[in-house]
Design a protein that fits this description.
Oligomer: single chain
Strand content: 15-25%
Distance between the termini: 22 Å
Radius of gyration: 29 Å
Number of strands: 18
Shape: elongated
């Protein structure tokens, strides 16, 4: 924390403040200096021992003052004026301490400088507890108290909060850590969630992201996915209520996909990658726990498919012969974005004989059909289009010529590039109705 950042939250009087701990050789070394500064009105706080060898040391073993001042190293000397921090020195440095204190000749006989030690507030376990203590009051969700003999996982299942798989208990500490993944306010309304049209805040999304098993850095992607899925164009209510077996499929583009480790390669539609497995699941838990979209109630799918548990993958932008899918759909170049598509089950497309783009398109057309669809082109198949100089729009036009599509669906053939780098296979996911009565793919930028 730099000068001026402490603000008036510490409640300390103006003047010099020193923070030390007994378990720090440098802090013990500067005891004579602290005595000199005491004559200038310096207040000395000890983090670990009320009997620190300085007469007048103030007990801060609860670390309230150290936390409020953002102390990361001891000893730390700082000055407060009008409730604001105006200067700080970490560790012992005679010249800098003299300048801050407005004194000369401090610590005669001591070395000119010595490094300090880590503050107790920087200890990971203690920092987590302090964060919980000072921030838990910022959460608006009520805590559900469980009986002493209740198993947490079974209790959450019994209350209907899960999708059939175990969920992570959303404790205050976990939710606060999740909220650290975004700069957005916890009380900001992200979307209105169908089918019950309930507003969902960043905090509520964070709670469900914890339950889904997400890491904090995934939260911005989850928030964008919730935003995209709850638009009128995507028609999440219809996606839930239809007896056709579709669910939200998330395709992630941009730096965020790589930063959080979303798989775009081998087994990208399967298990094994935490980001892929939990981001789409977080959306589905929001729909279930906030929006009330539950199987057998509003959710009327005849069969369902894995996308109803959660399906998320990234495009392989580095290997792709085309611009990113999100950019092709209007997102700024280089932006992180999520595209959501109402997709049915995954159908594999096998063609190990085609040697030209035209021949491969004929195979694709037999699987894509006349409706809206998501076609995921693998690197081995994509090589034919790269070598021939075909653009994504060239491929889409060729497919539409072979599989005529209603006008309402012409813009809803999504073509992504992803998959393992060995295997002459691609994948198709059939979509639901396009247009006003169905679902239209939606792309939303990821905001940190």
């Amino acid at each position: 924390m730099g000068a001026g950042e402490a603000g008036g939250s510490s409640g300390l009087p103006d003047g010099l403040v020193a923070v030390v701990k007994r378990d720090c050789p440098t802090c013990v070394t500067v005891v004579p200096v602290l005595a000199e500064l005491a004559a200038l009105g310096c207040s000395v706080y000890t983090q670990d021992d009320p009997d620190f060898p300085f007469e007048g040391a103030i007990d801060d073993t609860g670390l309230e003052v150290s936390w409020a001042l953002g102390v990361e190293t001891v000893p730390t000397l700082l000055r407060l004026e009008s409730g604001k921090e105006t200067g700080r020195v970490a560790g012992w440095h005679r010249g800098r301490w003299e300048a801050l204190a407005g004194a000369s000749g401090l610590g005669g006989g001591l070395p000119d400088q010595r490094p300090g030690c880590g503050s107790l507030t920087a200890d990971p376990e203690i920092a987590a507890l302090l964060s919980l203590r000072h921030r838990s009051g910022t959460l608006s969700a009520r805590r559900v108290e469980l009986g002493p003999l209740e198993d947490e996982l079974e209790a959450m299942w019994a209350r209907g909060w899960t999708d059939g798989l175990p969920v992570v208990p959303p404790t205050e500490a976990r939710v606060l850590a999740m909220l650290d993944g975004t700069a957005r306010r916890p009380d900001e309304v992200v979307a209105v969630v169908p089918p019950n049209l309930v507003p969902v805040t960043v905090e509520k999304v964070a709670i469900n992201a914890v339950m889904a098993g997400c890491r904090p850095e995934y939260l911005p992607v989850v928030l964008a996915l919730v935003e995209a899925s709850c638009t009128d164009a995507f028609n999440l209510h219809g996606v839930l209520a239809t007896t056709f077996s579709v669910g939200p499929v998330a395709i992630v583009n941009g730096p965020a996909a790589k930063a959080v480790g979303i798989n775009s390669g081998v087994n990208l539609l399967g298990q094994g990658c935490r980001a892929n497995s939990t981001i789409g699941r977080a959306l589905q838990l929001v729909v279930r726990n906030v929006g009330g979209g539950r199987p057998g109630e509003v959710d009327r799918a005849t069969f369902g498919n894995p996308a109803k548990t959660g399906l998320c993958f990234a495009e392989d932008e580095e290997g792709s012969p085309w611009e990113p899918l999100a950019e092709a759909r209007g997102a700024p170049a280089g932006a992180s974005a999520v595209t959501v598509f109402a997709g049915g089950g995954v159908r594999m497309v096998t063609d190990q004989k085609a040697r030209t783009p035209e021949a491969l398109v004929e195979t694709f057309a037999r699987h894509v059909g006349p409706g809206d669809a998501l076609l995921v082109v693998s690197p081995d198949h994509g090589r034919l289009f790269r070598d021939a100089g075909w653009s994504r729009s060239d491929l889409a036009s060729a497919l539409e010529a072979l599989a005529p599509r209603p006008a309402a669906m012409c813009n809803d053939l999504l073509i992504a590039y992803a998959g393992g780098r060995a295997g002459l296979f691609s994948a198709v996911m059939e979509g639901w109705l396009a247009g006003p009565s169905g679902s239209v793919p939606v792309t939303v930028e990821v905001r940190q």
